[in-house]
Amino acid sequence: MDAGTGSQMKEHRYATHVRWTGNTGDGTSSYRSYSRDHVITVEGKPEIPGSSDPNFRGDPARYNPEDLLVASLSTCHMLWYLHLCAVNKIVVVNYEDHAEGMMNARSDGSGEFVRVVLKPRVTISSGDRERALELHHEAHKFCFIANSVKFPVEAEPEVLSIAD
After folding, report:
1. I need a labelling partner for 138 at 20 to 30 A (CA). Which of 25, 49, 66, 159 fits?
2. What is the rounded CA–CA span in Å between residue 148 and residue 154?
3. Nearest one of 41, 67, 42, 32 to 52, comparing CA atoms
4. Nearest 5 degrees, angle CA 66-CA 153-CA 80?
5. Which is it for strands 158-161 and 120-126: parallel, antiparallel or unpaired?
6. Same domain, 42 and 78
7. How large is the angle between the packed helices 65-87 and 129-142, nearest 10 degrees?
């Protein structure tokens, strides 16, 4: 039982495999001697090509951890939002989010995310538009990823009706 709510907690596990593919022949003999490229895999799913942010000698054509963190927050919010709309008889016909994360880097090379802003733009074909807007706040409360980070995750939603 969870002491805070009196409800039973169920554990879920997620396994990933990360393989560095950036050894150009000399390993990490110097800061510039290796590529930051890697491959992320989950059993039975397509590979994700990864690297570091281009500011840190990464390949701009590959996903970096910062991209994936912002995308995780955005997709978690979206999936909860769609669920809540379905059970509240609000029909969503389009959903797009232009999420943005802000990270501050320190002079020693460390850093941290300080904020992520989700900007979902939703189109509904039926249901209460005001309730559709409110459900973004509920989705935020349920999002596993947003509940796991120490920085603020804000939502600036827009809900349109097909009738608009």
Report:
1. 66
2. 14
3. 67
4. 95
5. parallel
6. no
7. 130
120-140: buried (b, 16+ CB within 10 Å) or exposed (e) per residue? bebbbeebeeebbeebbeebb
- Specify whether 53 is located in the same domain as 74: no
CATH number of the domain that 114 lies in? Answer: 3.30.300.20
Instruction: Report pLDDT for 164.
Output: 66
pLDDT of 163 reads: 72
pLDDT, tens digit (0-9, with 9 covering 90-100), for 87-136: 999 999 999 999 999 999 999 989 999 999 999 999 999 999 999 999 99
Domain count, the chain: 2
Instruction: Give the contacts of 90 (CB within 8 A, at least 6 positions apart).
Output: 124, 126, 127, 128, 131, 132, 135
| Residues 69, 59 within the same domain | no
Q: Do 58 and 123 lie in a common domain?
A: no
**How far is residue 23's CA from residue 36's CA, in Å, rounded to a whole number?**
9
Structural domain for 153, as ranges: 65-161
Q: How far is CA 59 from CA 35, 40, 41, in A?
A: 8, 15, 18
Determine if the pTM surpasses 0.85: yes
